[in-house]
Design goal:
mainly alpha, 204 residues, two-stranded antiparallel sheet, 8 helices
Length: 204
């Protein structure tokens, strides 16, 4: 990497990892982006399939910027390959659209992507589901997996309800600052919580 003039090699660090002999040794580590870049530099025929895959994925991403609908088509195919039903997939894709509308509204309210989004999503989830995102994932037995990808149809509908309600209240109230936006998130969450409690009452 240094010979290529890449500064990426500076991102390679070392951590003590357990070896096959059960002992911990300092081992070279890097993030995913750096690992993929390293693979591109390997002058070996064995690395060629990976390089071809990178080129294919890159091409697909360029296509998606020209025609965003392609991203939905690929998402549909990916979910089908994972064994999800078409009904669930349609709900999931709709939930992605709803989340995007909500985050657009948060941007209007000057809530920047990142930690503030995380705080607000946690606020919403805590209100309607009685647990924050971390605890919800733990309840579902998840680690790095996406929480919404592991929701039932009903959970997705309730999650869309709370996010739509939060967005509509925000448009009406036009909250300023994180605390006011958290208050709106809780109000949106309360709407879905009432629906959830009523469904639980009717179904046991």
């Amino acid at each position: 990497m240094n010979q290529e003039g890449s500064e990426l090699s500076q991102k390679v660090g070392q951590l003590k990892l357990k070896s096959s002999d059960g002992k911990n040794y300092l081992t070279d580590v890097a993030d995913i982006e750096s690992i993929l870049r390293l693979i591109q530099s390997i002058p070996s025929p064995k690395a060629e399939p990976f390089k071809l895959w990178f080129a294919k994925v890159g091409y697909e991403r360029i296509e998606e910027t020209e025609d965003p609908e392609l991203a939905f088509d690929r998402a549909m195919k990916t979910y089908l390959q994972k064994g999800y039903s078409r009904e669930w997939i349609n709900q999931r894709l709709k939930s992605i659209e709803v989340r995007k509308e909500l985050t657009d509204e948060w941007q209007e309210r000057e809530m920047k992507e990142g930690i503030k989004y995380t705080i607000l999503i946690n606020e919403i989830t805590m209100t309607w589901a009685n647990r924050n995102v971390k605890d919800y994932k733990k309840y579902k037995g998840l680690k790095k997996e996406n929480l919404c990808d592991n929701m039932t149809n009903l959970e997705l509908v309730l999650n869309m309800l709370v996010e739509t309600a939060t967005m509509e209240i925000s448009k009406k109230q036009k909250p300023k600052g994180l605390e006011k936006n958290k208050e709106v998130a809780r109000r949106g969450g309360s709407a879905a919580k009432r629906a959830k409690l009523e469904i639980e009452k009717q179904t046991g």
